[in-house]
Amino acid sequence: MANSYFQFKQFRVEQGECAMKVSTDACVLGAVAPVAGAQRLLDIGTGTGLLALMAAQRTATADIHAVELDPAAAAQATANFQASPWAPRLTLHAQPLASLAATRPAPFDCILCNPPFFRHSLRSPDARRTTARHTTDASLTFEELAAFAADFLTPAGHLTVLLPPPEMQHFERAATLAGLWPVAQLVLRHRAGSKPLRHITTFGRQRATFQPTEILVRDTNEQYSQEFQALLRPFYLDL
Question: CB neighbours (10 Å) of residue 119?
């Protein structure tokens, strides 16, 4: 059983009421997302509030919003925000993304999302976990996420998304149709030679040529790799 909380260097994430717990790949997303210079930032499907909290640590003045449709997760994220050093800059919207869109929020410089992604795998009997992990009729679709970002990103803004490689291909098609193009990508592997676990891809309004970069979670001794340690050292207690 996962711990009921995850302690970081500058904040604590209580997660006992959330279907999806703190994960290594989500922490990598929070550490690499291009948030520098952002004045308004949105975390879509915030869950525990992890990505919003990491963005708050990485920015000095950004106004950070998070949206979460699951009531229990929204309540837990709100508590995590209030207990953090950045409570005045963190706002939780306990509603579906479509409801937030209907309010016509001001544009965001940066949007982050670790969306539901298991489109064809066996679903969990836990309905909340299924909504968090699988694209279902009740959850956020790739097309809805891409359309929202296209509508509410600033002209130079970016959307950064974490997905397994097959699902990322699907999302890239949805993003392109919405007018967003991949501009950077990080490939996350467990160790050298293993299959990619996740792609973390950043999208913008302009086409760009780029070379994907790569990070290994573990080295040949099954210890955290030097690159992973450098990336997560500002956050993890044991690095």
Answer: 14
User: pTM to 2 decimals?
Assistant: 0.90
In whole angstroms, what is the distance from residue 160 CA to residue 29 CA? 8
Distance CA 62, CA 55 (A): 8
Q: Is 185 left (phi over 0), alpha (psi -120 to 50) or beta?
A: beta
Radius of gyration of the chain (CA): 17
Q: Mind listing the pLDDT tens digit for each residue in 44-72? A: 999 999 999 999 999 999 999 999 999 99
Residue 72 phi, psi (nearest 5): -65, -45
Nearest to 142 by CA among 180, 106, 87: 180
Tokens 């996420």 belong to 145
Which residue has 């340690």 as its token pair? 229
Strand order in the sheet with 213-216: 90-93, 63-67, 40-44, 108-113, 153-163, 196-204, 181-189, 213-216
**H helix runs in 103-202, sequence order:** 127-133, 142-152, 165-178
Pairing status of strand 153-163 against strand 108-113: parallel
